[in-house]
Automatic annotation (TrEMBL):
The chain crosses the membrane at residues 174-193, 224-246, 272-292, 298-325, 365-387, 512-531, 538-563, 575-593, 627-645, 651-672. It is a multi-pass membrane protein. Keywords: Cell membrane, Membrane, Transmembrane, Transmembrane helix. Residues 703-737 are annotated as: Disordered. This is MMPL family transporter. It comes from Streptomyces maoxianensis.
């Protein structure tokens, strides 16, 4: 498929562009129909909500609040009324506003605080918050705040008001893409190569979000789902393309034709991308175990975006590689390739040095990594799930100011009243319950609201003495449900936003162990099949749990403890949103599995060829750590940018996932995992014989086969004589092969053009895909022996001191190949 996409690139590009614009046109015509219902079946708050909807259908529109405060005097003063009443009347006359409940009406006395300095009016729109036009909301805000003067302060709160405080749609995505572009340019040094992952991510996320818009008409999709879909889609889309482009560029620099390099990259890293994308989708699908309808829409949006991102990486990307050809390399790399020939050098630089350090000191590095992760995980012990409201907004927002004014004038519990909903209760029983509730500790106010005739539903509004996010409010709900209501003998349910999120947190806590167990078991099974090992998947599961604990520790410290939250513009501290752990754990486990697959697949490939665990871990880490760290840095940029989304849940998910990726990539995958694998030795790859026979075979990165053109004369291969010696080489005695040497080998002597033997020359055998097959030093007499896993075309390279580097294409068959190397002080031997 990769070769077809490469050769038919224009067709592929037209199909993707057509899909993007087609979905865009359909989405614009259909609009969105997102759902914001967080209720759970068979919970007390859900029963209360259902009764409320039947009894008060006219209250289905969003209700927002206009709050004003005077610095001296009273809000009842004539001068204040003359400014506020005309403003409220003008708001009431706007198209799209249902009604305005003024504190200056006959029934509005309770809307003025006891000291008379704070009052509020309730504005009920005709639609829910997400359907109210932003222009109308802005007109309401402007009209109300135009009434301000010296000594009179006006603020507004509510869900519709919150929408106009949000940054423009796409701000977070654009900032994330810009940051990713900088990282990609520094990593590749090429403008064209930088653009490739960004284009792939844009197409994947764009088609995913537009498809989600259309699906919102067919099933319940929460409004936060597209945000989470774009968050995960941008991260994996850029990363998957990065892995493939890196492998493609390496193939070109090591002598492969661009088309062959693309095919090899898709057949190796592309397979790993498919496998990694599958693990992400499986982790996301684990949310279905929670049996929360709200999360089903999140699974659909995020999984669909991941699938389309993977599809873009394996179809659109090879087409784009075909358009660019060798320009995927920087100009400096292209000039170096033309002047010096293919690069056959072994991985070097900081990554190789770090890999060698891990091999030398695995115990010390593992200990340091464990201590760091354990310290970061400590705050998770105080994790408290709940709800975020407008009291957690930034101090400079009008919604936060309105929230604080209402708390000041009417008590902290006024912003989160509870609703006791009774069915077919007698008036005397209702009044008795009201009196009992008023006498309950923690209750500031309890009032029976007027009920529609014939509804059979009675609502008692209860204002706690504590804020909605207080643990005391949670205890009050438990007391009402467990003691007060049962004593009344009536069927009464406790509802309201605070009760809904408390129930959500309770259900999440109960089902979370099953959810975690499910995604760990599925991930374990996938890695078991892929790497034919029990220890590798066990290590991955343990590392995932460590990463989750540490990242949630960071989340608790910032958002629940408030360490730097206000300074970072994240708002006031509060509990962690109840549904966030489920979503974050799904994304975290999926992303962690990605890095585990890309790291261990390279180690496993080396282990299959050499059966040397130390070498497999060292080479795998040296060759993948740089690209993993680069990919992680991109994800950190993308996730952190979602702080700018204007959505508290989006900011929490962004910060939490950014911390998780940073810890996972920089500490776990490049330090703790390889250190542990060095300590475990060959046990890493142990699998019982009985299980080995029963497991299906799944190749994440298959062994690279040599493309036909590499060994042909057209590819520049050196003709080999019947004896196996390259034309122009110096004949001499042949070295006997040691017992036990693998069947496919190349051996000979390294000499100068004057016939002098060259000792300590470094000889490297490289596959066409760029993988180092073997590497040795020549002996004092210049002799060397290199092993190959199978016959085929390879690159043989030699370097030694002041001599010029030497590179040749060779063909190895079933019999040992004799190949002498001539080195020159002034140029490459021709």
């Amino acid at each position: 498929m990769a070769r077809w996409c490469y050769r038919h690139r224009l067709v592929v590009l037209v199909l993707w562009v057509g899909a993007l614009f087609g979905l865009g046109a359909a989405g614009s015509a259909a609009g969105t129909n997102y759902s914001n219902s967080f209720s759970l079946p068979d919970t007390d708050s859900t029963h209360a909500y259902d009764l409320m909807v039947k009894a008060f259908p006219e209250r289905s529109g969003d209700t927002d609040t206009v709050v004003w405060r005077v610095s001296e005097g009273s809000v009842r003063d004539t001068a204040i009324r003359e400014r506020m009443e005309p403003a409220l009347e003008e708001i009431a006359g706007m198209k799209g506003v249902g009604e305005v409940a003024s504190p200056y009406s006959r029934a509005g006395a309770a809307q003025i605080s006891e000291d008379g300095r704070i009052a509020y009016a309730q504005v009920t729109f005709a639609e829910q918050a997400n359907a109210v036009p932003k222009e109308l909301v802005q007109d309401v805000v402007d009209t109300a705040q135009d009434a301000e003067r010296a000594g009179l302060r006006v603020e507004l709160g509510g869900q519709a008001i919150t929408r106009i405080q949000e940054p423009p749609t796409g701000t977070a995505e654009l900032v994330g893409l810009a940051a990713a572009a900088v990282v990609l340019f520094l990593a590749f040094g090429s403008l064209f190569a930088m653009v490739l992952p960004l284009v792939v991510a844009i197409f994947g996320v764009g088609t995913g979000m537009l498809s989600t818009m259309l699906l919102s008409h067919a099933t319940d999709v929460p409004e936060v789902a597209p945000l989470l879909g774009s968050l995960i889609g941008l991260g994996v889309g850029i990363d998957y393309a990065l892995f493939i482009v890196t492998r493609h560029r390496k193939g070109i620099t090591r002598g492969m034709a661009p088309e062959d390099a693309a095919v090899t990259a898709l057949n190796t890293s592309g397979r790993a991308v498919l496998f990694a994308g599958g693990t992400v989708c499986i982790a996301l699908a684990g949310m279905l175990v929670m049996n929360m309808r709200f999360l089903d829409g999140v699974v659909i949006a995020t999984s669909l975006t991941v699938v389309l991102s993977v599809l873009a990486a394996i179809t659109l990307l090879p087409a784009l590689l075909g358009v660019l050809g060798p320009r995927v390399l920087s100009r400096r790399q292209r000039r170096g390739l033309a002047a010096n020939g293919p690069d056959t050098s072994e991985s070097s630089g900081a990554a190789a040095r770090w890999s060698a350090t891990v091999q030398k000191r695995p115990k010390s590095i593992a200990l340091v990594a464990v201590v760091v992760m354990a310290a970061l995980a400590i705050p998770v012990l105080s994790l408290r799930l709940g709800a975020n409201d407008q009291g957690n907004h930034r101090e400079d927002t009008t919604t936060r100011q309105a929230y604080d004014l209402l708390a000041e004038g009417f008590g902290p519990g006024f912003n989160g009243p509870l609703q006791l909903v009774a069915r077919d209760a007698q008036p005397a029983a209702v009044q008795a319950l009201v009196n009992t509730v008023r006498a309950t500790e923690g209750v500031a106010q309890a009032v029976a609201l007027p009920s529609p005739p014939g509804s059979g539903v009675t609502v008692i509004q209860v204002v706690p003495t504590t804020s909605p996010q207080s643990e005391d409010t949670d205890r009050l709900i438990d007391i009402l449900r467990g003691e007060v209501i049962p004593q009344s003998g009536e069927e009464v349910h406790v509802g309201g936003v605070t009760a809904v999120f408390k129930d959500f947190a309770a259900v999440t806590g109960e089902r979370l162990p099953y959810f975690v167990g499910t995604i760990i078991a599925l991930g374990f099974l996938l890695l078991l099949i892929a790497f034919r090992s029990l220890v590798v998947p066990l290590t991955a599961a343990l590392m995932n749990l460590i990463a989750a604990a540490a990242s949630f520790g960071v989340l608790v410290a910032i958002f629940q403890w408030g360490w730097g939250a206000e300074a970072l513009g994240l708002g006031k501290e509060g509990p962690i949103t109840a549904f966030l752990p489920v979503i974050m754990l799904s994304l975290l486990f999926g992303l962690s599995m990605d890095y585990q697959v890309f790291l261990v697949s390279r180690m496993h490939e080396e282990w299959v060829h050499t059966k040397d665990n130390a070498r497999a871990v060292r080479v795998g880490l040296a060759e993948t750590s740089r690209v993993i760290n680069c990919a992680a840095l991109i994800m950190i940029c993308v996730f952190s940018a979602f702080v700018l989304s204007g959505d508290m849940e989006g900011a929490m998910a962004g910060i939490g996932l950014a911390a998780a990726v940073a810890l996972d990539a920089f500490i776990l995958r490049t330090a703790l995992v390889p250190a542990a694998m060095h300590l475990l030795g060959k046990a890493n790859w142990w699998l019982p014989v009985g299980l080995e026979k029963r497991l299906p075979h799944l190749a994440v990165e298959p062994r690279e086969d040599a493309p036909e053109p590499v060994g042909s004369a057209a590819s520049g291969a050196v003709p080999v004589s019947a004896s196996g010696s390259a034309s122009g080489s110096v004949p001499g005695p042949r070295t006997a092969l040691p017992a036990g040497t693998r069947g496919s080998v190349v051996h000979g002597f390294v000499r100068t053009r004057q016939g002098e033997p060259v000792g300590d020359a470094i000889l490297t055998l490289v596959s066409p895909g760029g993988r180092q097959v073997d590497r040795v030093e020549s002996l004092a007499d210049g002799s060397y022996i290199l092993s190959a896993p199978a016959g085929g075309a390879y690159l043989l390279a030699a370097t030694a001191g002041v001599h010029e580097p030497w590179v040749r294409h060779i063909m190895i068959g079933g019999d040992p190949l004799v190949h002498d190397v001539l080195l020159s002080d002034v140029g490459v031997s021709r």
